Amino acid sequence: MSLKNQQAYQPLPSAVAAMDNPAMSNSSSSSGSNDDVAELVQSGLPPTYSSQQLVSSDSDSMERQHLRGTSIAPEPRSRPGISRKQWFAVSVLCFVNLINYMDRFTIAGVLTDVKKTFAIDNDSAGLLQTVFVLSYMVFAPLFGYMGDRYSRRWLMVVGVALWSTTTLFGSFMQTFAGFITFRALVGIGEASYSTIAPTIISDLFVDSMRSKMLALFYFAIPVGSGLGYIVGSTTAELAHDWRWALRVTPVLGVTAVVLLSMLKDPKRGESEGVEQVERASFCVELKDLLKNRSFVLSTAGFTCVAFVTGALAWWGPNYIHLGLKMQPGNENLKQEDISYKFGLVAMAAGLIGVPLGSALAQYYRTRIANCDPYICGIGLFISAPMVFIGLVMARSNGTLCFLFVFLAQVALNLCWSIVADILLYVVVPMRRSTAEAVQILASHALGDAGSPYLVGAISTAIKNKMLAQSRTVDSDVLKSMSQLAENATEIVTETLRARSAEDVYTFESLQYSLFSTTFVEVLGGVFFLITACYIVKDKSRATASVLADNDLRLAPNNDLSLAPNPTYSKTLFDAEYLANYTDIALRERA
Q1: 35 class by beta-carbon count within 10 Å (0-12 exposed, 13-18 middle, 19+ buried)
Q2: Which of 112, 447, 464, 528 could be stapled to 306 by a disulfide with Cβ–Cβ 3.0 to 4.6 Å?
Q3: Distance between CA atoms of 21 and 235, rounded to whole angstroms?
Q4: Hey, is 149 helix, strand or coil?
Q5: Which SUPFAM superfamilies match (predicted)?
Q6: Residue 487: is it exposed, middle or buried by C-beta count within 10 angstroms (0-12/13-18/19+)?
Q7: Taking the CB of residue 428, how many other CB atoms lie within 10 A of it?
Q8: What is the pLDDT of residue 27?
Q9: For residues 118 and 30, what is the distance between their CA atoms, to the nearest angstrom?
């Protein structure tokens, strides 16, 4: 690129920028560095140049012309409202997300009955969730690739229909092999929806309005999980058969399929004003995502969140039931009662945690540019000791146990909507479905895909070791006692004591195994704190890429300096970055 062209990309002085955009008047003067420009973008130049804009309009064009330095100034206009179609789209997506997580955690509410039916131990019980998440994560990249290229509406319709059908068929399986096979098929269907739905919301809304809608969407995760425990345990108790618990969500799934078929699929990048989307190869997109440090680090932090969530959600009711049952007077305590209470706690934590995380992010973004990963990291640091105390209290005080579980889940739920928002504003619109798929693949592969099985396998190994040591000690005691007297009553007493010891070992082994989640939470908090070092610059780069791409489409001979109405993107980065971007964009088109 020539020196003449490079000079066209020099950043504007802060005074000029303040005149063009009053929201930037409080920013520090621009020195042309990337960090200073990133601060300007964060504080005063959102991707679509409006505070809560939904879609492009004529007034947006006037405002952009004003940013381009022309004499046309935008006329005062009222903030656009949310149309019925947009409310319908968000409502349908939230409803499907709700029943999605209801289905996912219904089995956890009746896990004790499932173990008795198929005569399996903790390791095999954990494998039920693991095979589901494995198939879920393996097919997520495929649906992410198709979601960036084909009709998202019909991909979701097919996916929801698939998981509803396989859930229903799975409830009739009489063997563990058949049952676990259909659980794996359920994961394929759910992968289609979870990968695509957030990108539709991102194409309908921007900025704070997008954050609010994402909070509403992810609000359905803890609430749906809680309903899964409640509906599963209640239905199993009423029908006297845990299999009927799996036949509730398929009925709701039929309704979801009908509603999704009526959904309007917005254009990709519509909310950012991207008129046309050029597709790159999957390898190019993946390579670009792996270079995005904010995306990689936030995905690593979210993987830790998924690990903890998967382990506690799967084993939490069973663990609390084991602990409370050892208290005097609770010998006949039912698993269904604990699952019901655990579901209520999960729902309450979701009702508070998800909106609170979104509200904190929106409040502090005007004060701290990189507040989002800080909120996620602090939430994990708070949740870790709460989880530890809750695990310790399960055997002595049920009320305190549920209280600390509630506090731990509230802090953990702060992350859900914020992590989704981070992905959407550090990744350009044409790669968001792929980014969602990669994040799902990574977070589930190293997170909740293995955590239920890992916790179950570790607890089984610890319990077997405890039982082996106990039998050795008991054998020595019995030999010494037999030398004194051979009494049948004493033998029966020892047998009963051994059975009681096995229950204690089952509880303690699961407790030791679940302690691992506290260390994973601390690790996740560290990842989010590191993310805070890069997120402002990566967000600015994503914004500049969208604007520069629009300029490149209008520029003769693919020369940005010759664009008829160069946008403010030329002031965001120096000539070297824009030259590199031009080369990348041209290679992708080829």
Answers
A1: exposed
A2: 447
A3: 58
A4: coil
A5: MFS general substrate transporter
A6: exposed
A7: 23
A8: 36
A9: 67
Amino acid at 130: T
Among 106, 90, 339, 132, residue whose Cα is nearest residue 218: 90
Alpha carbons 537 and 35: distance in angstroms, whole number: 7
pLDDT of residue 40: 42
Beta-carbon contacts of residue 404 (< 8 Å; ≥ 6 apart): 386, 387, 389, 390, 393
Determine the Cα–Cα distance for residues 115 and 364; give it in Å rounded to an integer: 47
Cα–Cα dist 139/143, whole Å = 6
> Who has greater pLDDT, 27 or 280?
280
Q: Give the residue among 133, 123, 105 at the shortest CA–CA distance from 449.
A: 133
Candidates 169, 161, 186, 188; CA nearest to 256 is: 161
To the nearest 10 degrees (0 to 180), the angle between helices 398-413 and 371-393 is 160
Residue type present at position 406: F
Q: How far is CA 29 from the centre of its chain?
A: 38
Q: What CA–CA distance (Å, rounded) separates 104 from 170? A: 13
**CA 250/CA 342 separation, integer angstroms:** 23
Q: pLDDT per residue over 350-409, tens digit each? A: 889 888 998 999 899 888 989 999 999 999 999 999 999 999 998 888 889 999 999 999
Number of other CB atoms surrounding residue 355 within 10 Å? 18
Which of 533 and 478 is assigned the larger pLDDT?
533
Distance in angstroms between the alpha carbons of the first and the last residue of the chain? 20
Q: Give 551-579 as a DSSP string.
A: HHHHSGGG-GGG-SS--GGGGTS-HHHHH
Tokens of 254: 């039929």
**Residues 532 and 544: beta-carbon distance below 8 Å:** no
Q: What's the distance, CA 20 to chain centroid?
A: 38
Burial class (CB within 10 angstroms; exposed 0-12, middle 13-18, buried 19+) of 156: buried
Residue type, 547: L
Helical H runs in 326-393? 335-364, 371-393
9 — phi, psi (to 5°)?
Answer: -105, 10
- Does the pTM of the predicted model rise above 0.70? no
Q: Render 464-524 in DSSP notation, one character per residue.
A: HHHHHHHHHHHHHHHHHHHHH---HHHHHHHHHHHHHHHHHHHHHHHHHHHTHHHHHHHHH
User: What SS3 class is residue 244?
Assistant: helix
Q: Cα separations (Å) of 76 from 62, 73, 144?
A: 11, 9, 40
Residue 11: pLDDT above 70? no
User: What is the pLDDT at residue 432?
Assistant: 77
- What is the C-alpha separation between 148 and 433, in angstroms, rounded? 6
Q: Are 384 and 521 in contact (CB under 8 A)?
A: yes
Distance from C-alpha of 218 to C-alpha of 473, rounded to nearest angstrom: 52
Residue 308: predicted pLDDT: 92
Task: Encode 60-82: b = buried (16+ Cβ within 10 Å), e = exposed.
Answer: bebbbbbbbeeeeebeeeeeeee
- Cβ contacts of 546 within 8 Å, gap of 6 or more: 47, 269, 272, 274, 428, 429, 569
